[in-house]
Amino acid sequence: MRSAFYNLINFINTAKVDDVYANAAKKILENINKIPELNITDVAEMCFVSTATISRLCRKLNYESFSDFKMDVTMNLRYFNHDSMRMQFDHQLPVLPVAGKTTKDLFNDHFENIVQNLRSTYEMIEFEELEKLVDLIYQSNEICFAGNFFTQSVSMQLQIELSYLGKKCTGMYPLQSQKEVVRDLTGNDLIIVSSIAGGYWQDHPDMLREIAKSRAHKICITQVENIPYQEQFDMIIQVGTDHLSLIGKFSITYIFELLEALYHIKYGRV
User: Fold this and answer.
1) Is the pLDDT at 113 greater than 80, yes or no?
2) 228/236 Cα distance (integer angstroms)
3) What are the contacts of 122-127 at 24+ separation with CB within 8 A?
């Protein structure tokens, strides 16, 4: 759960050099741990800008207000270290020194966890399911990709492939934008939800409710064994070995790459 970090870094990386909002975003990022204790006036003074500039920056970052931004930062910081443990060492972060183990040993364990996760995914996935999904993508008028930042970024390559081949795709980061698109989808459209360890629907239960109510076909790609409203989904593609581990990001990436390759083979231009 790092949405505030993604928002800030993405904004900084795509802004013009010496843009006043980007400079303020950089200053906020440098002092991110202080934000939960500051009000908008404090942040404006820290960034050498007006409170109005901070308010506009928050809207540019897809927050309704500074209060919403501050709340998201606070939540991000609370979970940051926990997420780091799950991402790197399969939710078990050894504290050095570990008896009889070197740093290389620890990273070898990490590598083996990744291989095991991918192998488990390969063994669980039915090729026929992926073919059905590829056909459903082809038959759908619009494909909406829903998820948090990482899985949305991973799905972007598939979006590019589909767009090149004439499919209408949407995959927005701002939650409100996702809601608006989902509400307008019809029974001829498709929603692909992806979440490594269920953070998407844990953080945004209202968004999953909107998806469940949608008339569109619904697919979910995740490590989680049981998801809310799963009876509303046409297909759940389960990956990985441990629903607690963010190592599953490698397996979800693998699935999206398979879908891209299969779609191109079956429906690509000669």
Assistant:
1) yes
2) 12
3) 124/238, 124/239, 125/237, 125/239, 125/255
- Asked if 160 and 254 sit in the same domain, the reply is yes
- Rounded to the nearest integer, the mean pLDDT of the chain is 87
**Residue 112 in domain:** no
pLDDT of residue 270: 52
Q: Do 137 and 232 reside in the same domain of the chain? A: yes
Same domain, yes or no: 255 and 131:
yes
pLDDT digits 0-9 by tens, 5-56: 888 998 999 888 889 999 999 999 999 999 999 999 999 999 999 999 999 9
pTM of the predicted model, to two decimals?
0.79
Band of residue 92 on the pLDDT scale cut at 50, 70, 90: very low
Q: How sure is the predictor about 83, in pLDDT bands with cuts at 50, 70 and 90? A: low
Residue type, 235: M
Q: What is the pLDDT of residue 150?
A: 84
Domain harbouring 74, CATH code: 1.10.10.10
Q: Which domain holds residue 30?
A: 3-85
Count of structural domains within the chain: 2
- Indicate if 205 and 156 belong to the same structural domain: yes
